[in-house]
Amino acid sequence: MDKSKRLFVKSKKSIRRSSPLIQSGDRIDYKNLSLLFKFITREGKILSRRVNKLTLKQQRLITIAIKQARILSLLPFVNSSTFLKNAKKKYAKKKYAKSFPNAKQKYAKKKYEKSVPNAKQKYEKSVPNEKKKI
Predict the structure, then answer these.
(1) pTM for the whole thing?
(2) Which candidate, 53, 43, 129, places its Cα nearest to that of 83?
(3) How far apart are CA 44 and CA 39, in angstroms?
């Protein structure tokens, strides 16, 4: 063969990457909405296997889970943009909730104290002495 013909020969190996969207610990289930939202377009269509880069078995499980969630009205059949934005925020995975269980409470308390100056003193003045229990 000529060298010019060799340059255009396609390699016979097909490289398929493993899916970055599904980790080993993720359960493909109709209740796992944070995972299911990754495989739905804005219009509410299920993304194809070629786009998702999933295996055949994973794609089947995803489609079944999405269809079950739609029937149980956890997901809409046709998405509106406002529903999709709100739902993604609502069902997003919280990364640090387990490692810092009291962080949210402390932050909320500090935020409230900053927004209302002398909040504790105002509360004590407004509530009679009998009902004060902090």
Answers:
(1) 0.50
(2) 43
(3) 9
Q: Interior CA angle at 120 toward 115 and 122, to 5°?
A: 90
User: Which neighbouring-strand residues pair with 46?
Assistant: 40
What are the residue boundaries of the structural domains of the chain, listed by start? 33-85
- Tell me the pLDDT tens digit for each residue of 7-32: 666 666 666 555 467 877 788 999 99
Superfamily of domain 33-85: Ribosomal protein S18 (4.10.640.10)
19, 54 Cβ separation under 8 angstroms: yes
- CA dist 29 and 35 (Å) reads 9
At 116, which amino acid appears?
A: V
